[in-house]
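Re: beginner question about structure tokens

> Can someone show what the tokenized structure looks like for a real chain? I only ever see the sequence side.

Sure, here's an example I had lying around. Input first:
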Amino acid sequence: MPVIAKTVILLVISNVFMTFAWYAHLKHLSQRPWIVAALVSWGIALFEYLVQVPANRIGHTRFELGQLKILQEVITLSVFVPFAALYMKEHYPAFSAGNRTRTPAEIVRHMASLMGYVTTHFVGGTYPVRPDPLPTFAAEVARFHEMLQTVGGLLSAGTPLRDITTEQLLQGPFADTMTHVGQLAMLRRLADSPVAPENFIYADIRADRLDAEQPPPARPDKHWPEAPE
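And the corresponding structure tokens:
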């Protein structure tokens, strides 16, 4: 087999291991302590090096170091793109269910606006109906939770509503937000990235924990026949 073929094949295999070592824990171990994810990633990375070191040795008999590095980066991108789209389902934030439908990122942005609107009924002022887009989906989620925490603080402090009743608050922006939560779950299934089922009766929900960091499911379903492959 030609040197270049051996090098490419081995580098592809090593990059698969490397990509899983670096990023798969974000999907499977995000609720576990970081040291657990680090040890699991280290174990996967061992297999990467067992393939990558021979690949570089073989490749260096044919390529200069700079050429070998460029080849490595090209292969890394060719492995990472399908990994992100097909395995990590990173296409979800921009997923569109049809013409003129909101994407998940746009829905979360709107939910942040709704929570901002709620604050105006406690403290006055205004909040933009269409907040400026943020660069990442994680940033959009963080902004929503920041606004949710602000609302939670106002409620905990007993701040009185200025011009509407509690019932109107529930039937208006709160009900609207909960509807969008259901839309996000539906879009995840349509995007082949569904939420794992659990028994929400036993979910660890607390009024003082409104940030994006939430505990893992207390009673996850043992059987999930619709789980993505």
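Each token stands for a local structural state, so reading them left to right follows the chain. Helices lie at 3-23, 25-28, 34-59, 65-87, 104-123, 137-156, 166-190.
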